[in-house]
From TrEMBL, chain A:
Protein source organism: Actinophytocola xinjiangensis
SMART domains referenced in this protein's UniProt entry, alphabetically: AAA
Protein name as annotated: Export ABC transporter ATP-binding protein
Stored PROSITE patterns: ABC_TRANSPORTER_1, ABC_TRANSPORTER_2
Similarity comment text for this entry: Belongs to the ABC transporter superfamily.
SUPFAM superfamilies, A to Z: P-loop containing nucleoside triphosphate hydrolases
Transmembrane feature ranges: none
ABC transporter domain mapped to chain residues: 2-227
From TrEMBL, chain B:
Organism: Actinophytocola xinjiangensis
Keyword Transmembrane belongs to the record: yes
Residue stretches spanning the membrane: 18-38, 50-70, 91-116, 136-158, 165-186, 227-248
Designated name of the protein: ABC-2 type transport system permease protein
Keywords on record: Membrane, Transmembrane, Transmembrane helix
Length: 318, 253
């Protein structure tokens, strides 16, 4: 279990992490979600005792990282796959790490096997592709067979095969009863990987809940209806208490169940060409929730994105 | 012990230490060979065989500075602190391993220099008997070790390879010599500069006045006795190391 209480990190006047409190429970994958620059990496470095918090504490199973004896046996982490000397072989890299925590050399070969790097174990790590580096980083994290695992943006820059592999791997680790804390700036990725979410923006906690809850909360469902008698159907739906908006020749309805819409149309003898449920996209929901807390706005792209998501979500909410 | 083993693995699983070793041995022993071969008027002495030690010293300090700065450059220092959160222990182990390695290179360089001179001029009397002769040869090993500690400490403080290497080189090769250009006090200041004092340990008292300057490293005018000179040099290294460890513990990795 990881427990952060009032965690803050200031760099001069810049506040990277601001009074952040959250709990990561064991036996499940918890996603650490936030836009780029939200303070995810800084928080992870503070968990590992690499950066000292300006205020607050973070404990792993009740202990500060620096108090852990042979920490690799308690916490495994992959913060940056490039933290390897390029001229050192994969095996040598794992060898010194293992030795530092009195982990047997046979375990080095075991983890190389687990991540599928046995064949290239004696090659220079500097010649590895990003996917291979990432696997080496995961091998290092697994060395001490730890109960707690931290991964910072593990799928960034990977090809689809690599992404799938990492995703399955996280689930396997959680199924083995371990605590997995994985950060990402992609909600869609987290929706597939994580059961729980800790969402931050500009260093502040936005939400901590299950992924399903977060998605349901963030995206309200609407129904798209196409009909040659749209005006008639529209007023009938408004009478039922629904919110109706005309858009590109179809109606976007919210507040009325999809079954009710169909039955209402049948009762009134209205012809329907389309009746389909819509869920707001996760990305839109994420932008809506963290929109105020994105650190670096791209002027043009941001305006259009905000306008698009704002329009959709506002009508959906009526 | 574990940490020493870890740092030993780290040092010998990259290439630069090996290249630096070869370079250090080549310049010191090469210089001894050159002097023995070129100076046909005088037979080589123990002192003259050690003329090139300061060139080897430069390479050793580059090696020592790189041993720590590459860790910062490639982020392995974070992996290290993650594996062993006790930063002082880790950095002390690294300093110890690098210093011990430098000492071994110093030993090989010094006796290798004597050996090659003997090979070239077999008539030379190169027996190591007096305290001075022991210091001039085996002492190189101690000076290399202390210099390595200084370079590691500077590396911890500066973190960037280029910065640390330039600082160490410019200081030891230029600042200590150029300080004499300061009017009136320049010479007095130089007598207390660490590398200049370290030279006193090697070139020592007895031979200072009665030997030709060409027969060994430039003599040192430090007023300290040879062993106090070494203690002074080591004390300087220790102070730098303590500052470096304190800094490394305080700042974010």
């Amino acid at each position: 279990m990881i427990e952060a209480v009032g965690l803050s990190k200031h760099y001069g006047k810049t506040v990277a992490v601001d009074d952040l409190s959250f709990t990561v429970r064991s036996g499940r994958v918890t996603g650490f979600l936030g836009p780029n620059g939200a303070g995810k990496s800084t928080t992870m470095r503070m968990i590992l005792g690499l950066d000292a918090p300006t205020a607050g504490t973070v404990r792993i199973d009740g202990k500060r990282y620096r108090e852990l004896h042979q920490p690799l046996r308690t916490v495994g982490a992959l913060l940056d796959a490039k933290w390897v000397h390029p001229n050192r072989s994969a095996r040598a890299h794992l060898h010194w790490l293992a030795r530092s925590n009195k982990i047997s050399t046979s375990r080095v070969d075991e983890v190389l096997e687990i991540v599928g790097l046995t064949g290239v174990a004696n090659r220079r790590a500097g010649g590895f592709s990003l996917g291979m580096s990432q696997r080496l980083g995961i091998a290092a994290a697994l060395l001490g067979d730890p109960q707690v695992l931290l991964f910072d943006e593990p799928v960034n820059g990977l090809d689809p095969e690599g992404i799938l592999w990492i995703r399955r791997f996280m689930h396997r680790l959680a199924d083995e009863g371990r605590t997995v804390f994985v950060s990402s700036h992609l909600l869609s990725e987290m929706a597939l990987t994580a059961q729980e979410l800790v969402v931050i923006g500009r260093g502040k906690l936005i939400a901590q809940c299950s992924t399903d809850e977060f998605v349901a909360q963030a995206t309200e469902s609407t129904v798209t209806v196409r009909s040659p008698q749209a005006d008639l159907l529209g007023s009938a739906l408004r009478d039922q208490g629904g919110a109706v908006r005309a858009e590109n020749g179809h109606l976007v309805v919210s507040g009325v169940d999809i079954t009710e819409i169909g039955e209402l149309a049948a009762a009134k003898g209205i012809v329907l060409h389309e009746l389909s449920p819509q869920r707001g996209s996760l990305e839109e929901a994420f932008i809506q929730l963290t929109g105020d807390s994105v650190e670096y706005h791209a002027a043009v792209g941001d305006q259009t994105a905000a306008a698009a998501s704002g329009a959709d979500l506002m009508t959906a909410g009526k | 012990m574990t940490l020493l083993a870890v740092e030993r693995i780290k040092l010998f699983t990259t290439r630069s230490p090996m290249w630096c070793t070869l370079a250090a041995l080549a310049v010191t022993i090469g210089f001894a060979a050159l002097i023995a071969a070129v100076d046909t008027e005088n037979l080589p002495t123990i002192a003259s065989t050690q003329f090139g030690y300061s060139f080897g010293l430069v390479v050793i300090m580059v090696m020592a500075a790189l041993a720590i700065t590459t860790e910062y450059r490639f982020g392995t220092i974070r992996a290290t602190f993650q594996a062993v959160p006790n930063r002082s222990a880790v950095l002390l182990a690294k300093t110890g391993v690098v210093a011990a390695f430098a000492a071994v290179i110093g030993l090989v360089a010094a006796f290798g220099s004597v050996g090659i001179a003997k090979l070239i001029e077999s008539r030379a009397d190169l027996g190591i008997n007096s305290a001075f002769e022991w210091r001039a040869t085996a002492g190189v090993s101690l000076v290399f070790a202390v210099a390595a500690v200084i370079a590691v400490a500077v590396g911890i403080l500066v973190r960037h390879s280029a910065g640390a290497v330039s600082l160490v080189l410019i200081y030891s090769q230029l600042v200590e010599s150029l300080v004499t250009l300061i009017p009136n006090v320049g010479d007095d200041i130089q007598r207390w500069m660490p590398f200049y004092v370290a030279n006193k340990f090697l070139t020592g008292d007895p031979d200072l006045t009665n030997r030709p300057i060409a027969e060994g490293p430039p003599p040192s005018l430090s007023t300290l006795s040879p062993w106090w000179a070494l203690a002074y040099f080591a004390g300087f290294a220790l102070v730098l190391l303590v500052i470096a460890l304190f800094t490394a513990n305080k700042r974010d990795a």
